[in-house]
Amino acid sequence: MPGPEGKGGVAVQGGALWIVNKSAPEKQAAAWQFLKFLDSPSSQATWAVGTGYLPIVKKAAESPEVMDFWGQNPGYQVAYDQLLTGVNSPATAGSVIGPYQEVTDAVRDAENSMFLDGKSPDAAVKAAASAATNAIGDYNERIGA
To answer: Is residue 138 classed as helix, strand or coil in its secondary structure?
Structure first.
């Protein structure tokens, strides 16, 4: 998971920016410029203060805007501090599941099917449950569980 190097204890979620390689090179180049803008300390500070979300850039966290926001709203700094001071332990290791990637993919695919394909939430959840159950079953068979 992304996070401060050498630190642990809290899994970072939602801090990923992606570019797919399925579009024209000029669109990918434009997307790269946009991601660099989003990842800039200034944009991250604006995002953190405006939403309470964690800045993903250390310079943004150290900016006067964010420091002032956290000074007035100390609860928003707690998660950031946990990233910097958390310890790696079984309790903080995250999901303990053999086919972690396959289950994560099943959930992601179900979410995408609602937003991209118009699938109903009920149908998406059923598809995710089926795919995850199959992945867990396959995993259990491989390890003899």
So the answer is: helix
What pTM value is reported for the model? 0.60
- The residue ranges of every structural domain in the chain are 25-86, 100-143
**SS3 helix, strand, coil % of the chain, rounded to 5?**
65, 0, 35
**Mean pLDDT to the nearest integer, 117-133:** 95
- Decide: 31 and 19 in contact? Cβ < 8 Å: yes
Q: Reply yes or no on whether the pLDDT at 1 is more than 60.
A: no
Contact (Cβ atoms closer than 8 angstroms) between residue 62 and residue 56: no
Burial class (CB in 10 A: 0-12, 13-18, 19+), 95: exposed
Element (H, E) at 73: none
The CA-CA-CA angle for residues 120, 126, 132, to 5°, reads 135
Out of 1-5, 19-23, 60-64, give the one with best mean pLDDT.
60-64
Strand, coil or helix: 1: coil
Give, in order, the Cα–Cα distances in Å from 7 to each of 61, 65, 67, 93, 108: 16, 25, 21, 12, 27
Looking at residue 93, its pLDDT comes to 67
